[in-house]
Amino acid sequence: MKAQRGFTLIELVIVIIVLGILAVTAAPKFIDLQTDARTATLNGAKGSLQGANALVYAKAAVNGVEGDDCTGVTTGGCNAVNEDISVLPIYGAVPATETAVKAVAELDGAEWTFTEGADANAGKLYVTPKNVTAKPTATDADDDACQLIYTQASQDATTKVVTPASYIVVKGGC
């Protein structure tokens, strides 16, 4: 009797079916890589902006203006911070403007869309990857946006309590 060599037709069909099932099961994970990449990019922008804010706060503290709104002030400690890092801080943080964020966080305009908030959203900057539609009224609960919402530091007019800058990554629409 001869020894059998190779696979039978049934074994070959079973292997193909098993590979097909594995491919269908694994495909959604690999299809979702673009979402993961966009989310990671937004988190990178958030980290860059947080690092920039730490630098701005340190420069403001050294010059004694960490509790001041330096908007439009070009004298004293505010001017010293501006000459050093090209930003006039607001309560020790980067203002929520495209110019200020680009200057200190080194976020390239070729890769990002910057939308400054208006009216009820004043003091916010919406940072969106270039290939994604910006939603300048999105909130952290908005599931179909893909952006970083940066809110500059502010001070309550009555209590004079300063609220630090905040960063929200909205990734539902990535």
Helices and strands, with pairings:
Layout lengths: L8 H23 L1 H30 L13 H10 L12 H8 L6 E5 L7 E6 L17 E5 L2 E2 L6 E2 L2 E5 L4
Antiparallel strand pairs: 1-2, 2-3, 3-6, 4-5
Could you walk me through the main structural features you see in this protein, from its secondary elements to its overall organization?
The structure is a single chain. With 174 residues, the protein is α+β, with helices and mostly antiparallel strands. It has a domain at 12-54 and 95-170. Helix content is 41%, strand content 14%. It has helices at residues 9-31, 33-62, 76-85, 98-105, and strands spanning 112-116, 124-129, 147-151, 154-155, 162-163, 166-170. A four-stranded antiparallel beta sheet has the order 1-2-3-6, with helices on one face. Strands 4-5 form a two-stranded antiparallel ribbon. Strand 1 (112-116) and strand 2 (124-129) form a beta hairpin. The radius of gyration is 25 Å and the shape is elongated. 27% of the residues are buried. The model has no long low-confidence stretch (mean pLDDT 84).
Task: Provide key terms for this protein.
single chain, 174 residues, alpha+beta, four-stranded antiparallel beta sheet, two-stranded antiparallel sheet, 4 helices, Prepilin-type N-terminal cleavage/methylation domain-containing protein, Pilin-like
